[in-house]
Design brief:
Layout (H helix, E strand, L loop, with lengths): L2 H18 L17 H5 L2 H15 L4 H11 L6 H9 L7 H25 L4 E2 L2 E2 L1 H5 L1 H20 L4 H23 L8 H25 L7 H26 L2 H4 L5 H5 L4 H9 L2 H9 L6 H10 L2 H20 L7 H11 L5
Antiparallel strand pairs: 1-2
Length: 352
């Protein structure tokens, strides 16, 4: 399919989703808040205020020709989910607040650099209700901007004087990049198993949640296995969040999501709702759909998902992952206090 056809398909897909998003499964936080994590953030407001200032300072370190583009990408405007995990994992008491803020910034900047690259890969034009660098400056400049931000992130990590931190960051980014390559090179005509999906979700999202929790846990110098426990909590919550994100890509309008949607279907990627649908359909019908995803009618697929109660199944796996994280945290009443609050906030994203 040519570029023009893909663009036409994307426009059609998003229009269809806007028509069906209310009749299928409206996704709302239980308190109708735009950020269900706001309560967790508010309880650590001084840390986030310092983080916002720190991030803006980092944007100003770039050369003047690059500074505006860097500031547009770095300026705080997201939910700060990953820094929240870093601060939450250090709830047992980080002795060095400057180091903790720097670690949260490392996580956020790593995330931002990968988002810039993701938007190039997906040819996305909107992110966080703003024009993406890919749309504004073109793919070449966007790629270099993402690289520059990540390189700066590694220079910040160097200030921690801890090779374990630098190694964890490097391994995290390698996992993200390899995951994207593996997904891109995979045979799109074959059905993806749930096991394979969880591997993909780990590389796309959970590994950065894992890193965020690890850097926070390492900041309090624990001696009772808290770092490993926090990492596993991050992994479980990251997979849960990817499932939620997959559902949003099907049933949320772009104006609500604040980003370009529908790119997975156009590229033939099989996300969690589609995988369950393919499992439930008769084999011949399932194989046919898998081979023709980019040319499929999204409205028809959405209706099939509703008829087969797939949103409910997604919700169950989403909740199961959170429950797994909460069980781990039961052994860490002091250290896990804030991560438990984060789990409770994630439950407000429950589908239905």
């Amino acid at each position: 399919m040519g570029d023009t056809s893909k663009l036409t398909k994307k426009i059609f897909f998003n229009c269809e989703k806007i028509q069906f998003c209310e009749t299928l499964i409206p996704l709302k936080n239980s308190n109708n808040s735009t950020n269900p994590f706001s309560g967790v953030v508010e309880s650590m407001r001084p840390l986030f205020s310092s983080l916002e200032k720190y991030l803006l300072q980092q944007a100003m370190t770039f050369e003047k020709e690059v500074r505006n583009a860097a500031r547009e990408s770095i300026a705080p405007k997201g939910k700060f989910i990953r820094p929240t995990l870093t601060f939450a994992a250090a709830a047992g008491g980080a002795p060095d607040k400057t180091s903790l803020i720097r670690r949260a910034a490392i996580v956020e900047l790593t995330h931002l650099s990968t988002l810039i690259h993701d938007d190039v890969i997906d040819n996305a034009s909107v992110r966080r209700n703003s024009i993406t660098p890919n749309k504004k400056y073109g793919a070449r400049t966007a790629i270099l901007l993402g690289d520059a931000i990540f390189a700066h992130t590694m220079s910040i990590a160097y200030e921690e004087s801890d090779p374990k931190i630098s190694k964890k960051i490097a391994n995290c980014v390698r996992t993200i990049c390899e995951g994207e390559i593996r997904q891109t090179l995979a045979d799109r005509k074959k059905n993806v198993t749930r096991k394979r999906y969880y591997e993909i979700a780990y590389g796309k999202t959970a590994v950065l949640f894992e890193l965020a929790c690890a850097l926070g846990a390492m900041a309090i110098r624990p001696k009772n296995g808290w770092i490993e426990a926090a990492e596993e909590v991050g992994k479980q919550l990251g997979i849960a969040y990817q499932i939620y994100d997959d559902i949003c890509d099907w049933f949320m309008s772009e104006s609500d999501a604040g980003k370009t949607l529908g790119t997975d279907l156009i590229s033939g990627k099989q996300t969690y709702p589609l995988i369950i649908l393919l499992e439930k359909l008769p084999k011949r019908e399932s194989d046919k759909l898998a081979k023709n995803l980019p040319n499929s009618n999204p409205a028809d697929i959405a209706l099939q998902m509703r008829d087969l109660d797939i949103p409910s199944e997604c919700s169950k796996e989403f909740a199961r992952r959170i429950s797994t994280a909460e069980k781990i945290l039961q052994k860490y009443q002091v250290e896990g206090r804030k991560l438990n609050e984060f789990c409770a906030a994630m439950r407000k994203l429950r589908l239905g």
